[in-house]
Write a structure and sequence with these properties.
- This protein has helices at 3-24, 30-51, 54-71, 73-86, 88-93, 100-127, 136-163, 167-176, 178-183, 196-204, 206-218, 232-235, 237-264.
- It has one domain (3-264).
- It is mostly helical.
- Keywords: Antibiotic resistance, Cell membrane, Membrane, Transmembrane, Transmembrane helix, Transport.
- The chain crosses the membrane at residues 28-47, 59-82, 103-128, 140-163, 175-192, 238-257.
- InterPro entries: ABC2_TM, ABC2_TM_bact-type, ABC_2_transport, Nod_factor_ABC_transporter.
Length: 266
C-alpha cells in the first residue's frame, strides 16, 4: 500500500470517527442547521419586503448558502481544539497512522456536515419562494462550488483550531473574524451604496464573488435594484472563485500541516 493510499485510508477512519461523534451529540449540528434557517426567514420576511420581495429572496439564498458554508468552518476550529485539549491528538500521534489523516479526516467530516446544511437550506429556500431557474448542470456546478468553498474554509478553521490555546478561545476565534468578512460582502445586500473602501473590499471579497457565481449558475438575480457589478472578478465569477479557493488552500494547508506537526511533537 502506497503512502498516499494509506493517508486516505487513515483519513477515512478519522472522518468516520468524527461523524459518529456528531451522531452521538446531535446538538452539535444546531448551529449548522437552525442558524441558516433563521437567517433565511429573518432576511426573507423581516427585511425582504423593503428590499425587493420575491426578487430579493432569490438574490438572498445564494448569499445565505455562501455565508453558511463559511461559518461551518467553526466545526473544524472547535473540533480540533477539543481533540487537542482532551488529548485525542496525542493518542492519534501514538498510532501508526499518517499525520495528515487527522487534518484531512476533520475537514472531510466537516464537509459532510456542509452537505447536510446545503440540503436543509435548499428545502428552506424552496419553501420561501426561491427557485433554480438555470439548467440542472449549472446547478450541480453551483453546489460543487459551494462545497469547494466549504472545504477551503475548513482548512482555515483547522489552522485557527490548532493555534487556539483552549476550546473557549477557539469558539471565539473561529467566528469573530467571519462576521466582518461575510457581512462586508454582497451576501445579503448589494455593495453599491457602501463607502468606497468597504465597497472595494466587498467587490473582491471571495464571499461576494462566490455568491454571485452561485446566483449566475442558479439563474437568480445577481443584484436587486442596483447596477450590475463591474470588474474582472465580476465578469469571471466562477474562475475567480476557483482561483480564490486554490490560493486560500495553498496558504492554509501548509500552515495547518506545519502547525499540527509542531503541536504533535510536543
Amino acid at each position: 500500500m502506497t503512502t498516499l493510499t494509506a493517508s486516505f485510508r487513515d483519513s477515512g477512519v478519522v472522518a468516520w470517527r468524527n461523524l459518529i461523534n456528531i451522531r452521538r451529540n446531535p446538538d452539535w449540528l444546531l448551529s449548522g442547521t437552525v442558524q441558516p434557517i433563521m437567517f433565511v426567514l429573518l432576511f426573507a420576511y423581516v427585511f425582504g419586503g423593503s428590499l425587493g420581495g420575491g426578487p430579493y429572496r432569490e438574490f438572498l439564498i445564494a448569499g445565505i448558502f455562501t455565508q453558511t458554508v463559511a461559518f461551518n468552518s467553526a466545526f473544524t476550529v472547535i473540533g480540533l481544539a477539543n481533540d487537542l485539549q482532551k488529548g485525542i491528538v496525542d493518542r492519534f500521534r501514538s498510532l501508526p497512522m499518517s499525520r495528515l489523516a487527522v487534518l484531512l479526516g476533520r475537514t472531510t467530516s466537516d464537509l459532510a456536515v456542509s452537505v447536510l446544511t446545503i440540503v436543509i437550506m435548499t428545502v428552506c429556500g424552496l419553501l420561501v419562494g426561491w427557485r433554480i431557474r438555470g439548467s440542472w448542470t449549472d446547478a450541480i456546478v453551483a453546489y460543487f462550488l459551494l462545497l469547494l468553498f466549504a472545504f477551503t474554509m475548513s482548512w482555515v478553521g483547522a489552522f485557527i483550531g490548532l493555534i487556539s490555546t483552549s476550546v473557549e478561545m477557539a469558539q471565539s476565534a473561529g467566528l469573530l473574524w467571519l462576521f466582518p468578512v461575510t457581512f462586508i460582502s454582497s451576501a445579503f445586500v448589494p455593495t453599491h451604496n457602501m463607502p468606497t473602501a468597504l465597497r472595494v473590499f466587498a467587490e473582491w471579497n471571495p464571499i461576494t464573488v462566490i455568491g454571485d457565481a452561485v446566483r449566475e449558475l442558479f439563474g437568480n438575480p445577481i443584484r436587486v435594484g442596483t447596477p450590475l457589478p463591474t470588474g474582472w472578478q465580476a465578469e469571471n465569477p466562477i474562475l475567480y472563485s476557483i482561483l480564490a479557493c486554490a490560493v486560500i488552500l495553498a496558504i492554509f494547508v501548509p500552515l495547518a500541516v506545519n502547525r499540527y506537526r509542531r503541536v504533535a511533537s510536543h
